[in-house]
């Protein structure tokens, strides 16, 4: 019986370690130098993007990874809750804000998943320009600005696709370095 509790603690600890790596990657200056707004919303969007990439890698192994994926999600939204409180958001409002952030997260991961699976190359740049850069997604200029970020996302998805799920579940992840040349919003 006790081993079940220790396993949950280990899973949560490993999810925390993985989440820390996601945060470090999401905060790389190259993203913000390339036009991602260096704001609370911009940082949230980059965390969502990297969480999406990791959870997308975990999904094909759902039977083995569902507990870990849930722990990773829980760690993310516990962090969001804590961050809102640190920013001075009152206790009565935090729950509503966290629910809204969760809705936004699910909306973004659905948009990114559809876009990555879309045969149209521009679909991902459109989704990123709307959700992260705050630019209209159907304009050629917005798509051009988002293209380096879209290339990074494709590269990161491929890099994660080559990583063993077991490694992720131990709390280790490798992302490519963002090479965001040519992008400015």
TrEMBL record:
Residues 34-171 form the Ubiquinol-cytochrome c chaperone domain. InterPro entries: Ubiq_cyt_c_chap, Ubiqinol_cyt_c_chaperone_CPB3, Ubq_cyt-c_CBP3-rel. Belongs to the CBP3 family. Belongs to the UPF0174 family. This is Ubiquinol-cytochrome c chaperone. It comes from Aquisalinus flavus.
């Amino acid at each position: 019986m006790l081993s079940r509790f220790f396993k949950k603690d280990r899973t949560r600890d490993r999810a925390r370690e993985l989440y820390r790596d996601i945060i470090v990657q999401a905060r790389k200056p190259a993203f913000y130098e390339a036009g991602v707004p260096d704001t609370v919303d911009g940082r949230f969007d980059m965390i969502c993007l990297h969480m999406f990439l990791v959870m997308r890698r975990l999904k094909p192994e759902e039977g083995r990874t569902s507990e870990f994926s849930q722990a990773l999600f829980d760690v993310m939204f516990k962090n969001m809750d804590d961050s809102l409180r640190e920013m001075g958001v009152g206790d009565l409002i935090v729950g509503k804000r966290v629910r809204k952030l969760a809705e936004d997260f699910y909306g973004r991961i659905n948009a990114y998943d559809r876009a990555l699976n879309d045969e149209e190359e521009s679909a991902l740049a459109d989704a990123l320009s709307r959700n992260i850069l705050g630019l209209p997604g159907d304009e050629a200029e917005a798509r051009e600005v988002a293209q380096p970020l879209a290339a990074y996302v494709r590269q990161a998805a491929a890099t994660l696709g080559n990583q063993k799920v077991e490694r992720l579940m131990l709390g280790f992840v490798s992302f490519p370095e963002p090479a965001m040349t040519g992008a400015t919003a």
